[in-house]
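Why this split exists: single-chain examples teach little about how molecules sit against one another. For that reason, every record in the complexes split bundles all components of an assembly together and asks for one structure covering all of them. Below is a record exactly as it appears in the raw files.
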Amino acid sequence: MPAVLEISGLEKTYRSRRRGARKALDGFDMVVESGQVHGFLGPNGSGKTTTLRTLLGLITPNGGQMTLLGQDVPAALPQVAGRVGAIVESPQFFPNFSAHDTLSLLADAGDVSKQRVTEVLELVGLRDRADERVRTYSLGMKQRLAVASALLKKPDLLILDEPANGLDPGGIREMRTLMRGLAESGMTVLLSSHILGEVQLICDSVTIISRGRRVAYGAVADVLAQHAGAGVTVRLESADDLSVAAEILIAAGARVTPDQDRLVVTNVEKPAWVTRTLAERGYYVSELAPVKVDLESVFLELTQTAPVAGQARQVDDSAVVAPAQGGWGV
Amino acid sequence: MSLPKAEVRRLFKRRVTRIFLVITLIGLAIFPIAFTINSHANSPESRAAAQAQADQAYQQATVEFQRTLAECEAAKARGETGLDERYGPNCGADWGPRPEYYPAEQYLPYEFNFQDEFAPSLAVLSAILALVAFVVGASFVGAEWNSGGMMNLLLWRPRRIPVLLTKLGVLLGSMLGLTVVLGAAWTAAFWAIGRYDGNLGKLTSGVWQSLGLTGARGVTMVLLAATVGFCLASIGRHTAMALGVGIGAVVVSEIGLRIAFELLQVRYGDRYVLSTYLVAWFDKKLTITDWRACDFVQGPVACTPPEYVVTWQHASVLLATVLVLSVFGALWSIRRRDVA
């Protein structure tokens, strides 16, 4: 599938007289293929919003290359802007205008028909509240309005930064259905979110960023698989034998972590090795299963942002990886 | 044309614009209403009544003068001294009332004179509209930056400078239209007061030309105020930036500098004050007199105090500099700075 968004070696440094220079993006790469829902994940302050703002011409990068829909940006941004719908960070609208006025003014500015305003208000569930001032809206309603504004121009690429922020459970499900529907209709969706369960459910592929660099990318299934093959959980016929079995496996070269009534065994090539090693010493496995990983655990592992008891993690305490080699996200 | 159309809609949908428009219309309407109530066209009857009042006042003053003179003469006959201090030399006989001191015009009711008084009223209109233009201009872009509206707009129209210039153009076009319409209504109202409730004076083509030029200077001032307010708010990305600078300029220039120059006895200190140039721009020139150069405390002296003249050309250089710096600053800012 052709890429609709490609970023290579993107760099952005914020300079402050008091705090000096801080690299927000440090050679970041990303590729989003056409027709996909692509998750964009990263801890707070990792560079997600900076990436999106840079892509949309709101921030000037210090280096790197970007293309949107096959055209170099920011140079060709005026030509492609009509095909890219975006919301960046928290929804921001003039509080004294109604939702209808807000969208209608954007429609005027972008040569979009008034009929489309009604359509998107219906689509995001704001039809009956469209004439109320935005200042009276809840965060979730503002979020719906933001999505409506991004959908207004029927974009080929939809960029959504935390679209589920403030949404109620029903709203989150509606948003999920909407994303899938949009992707099925041929729209490419780039979704930045911290709700990893949602990302795992609706995204075809993901990019994970930490400290301004890409730490993982690819199809969701592939990313999970890369981190799922690392271990198995083992139960024995008698739970009393767990400590002895752990010693046997450690002596044979495996890494073992006791977990209640089972052992989590890693650093093994094949699960059968565990069964054979224990059976040879007279201990019989009653249950052997691969360690299940989800996107959250992979994210926490890759970004090294899992909470540690007794420690208050600071926002910049996340994984640092070596700069990527090569171009166009490979 | 879609962006200008959207921006015109946005400008007039804004509450600040609507509220200021209503307040401005009400405030401006007060002036012609007040003049209508106070002005009375003079008739032969009213002139005769005024002449009678003037004559009566002259008679009363003459009687009083004669009484005082007699009192002084009596005191002189009694040999009293110090009469010159109390009554003046020769018992003040040389300072008696004269008929010309009591012109009938002083006793006429107020009559509005269009030819003489309309030009100063244009200054009032321009000053009010300039203030409104400054606030509306600042709010138009400042609130957009502050609320995130500008960012949304740039996502749709990612050409920063054309977007900013379009907004500025819409603001200036709207303010020009508003000023022209209100100026025409203002002129018509005061012409009607002069025609039906006062005096039009001699309205030659030269008078109308002069009024037209005064109006043009007023329009320029309104558009300048709108531009400066807009650009300051855009540089600071908040309405408060423009309002703060505006209030700061007034406090520093009109109060702080005046006090400092008075204390330091700076010669022609007013030439460093902003309002001097605004008045010079509107009145074509402003003369600043160095009253300290003559010692008037010792009584009348043969001394003509020196003057410093600020012309409209001086004012236009300063105002053009402010305009260029504001616009350049706003364009540089939107081009160079990140939109966060």
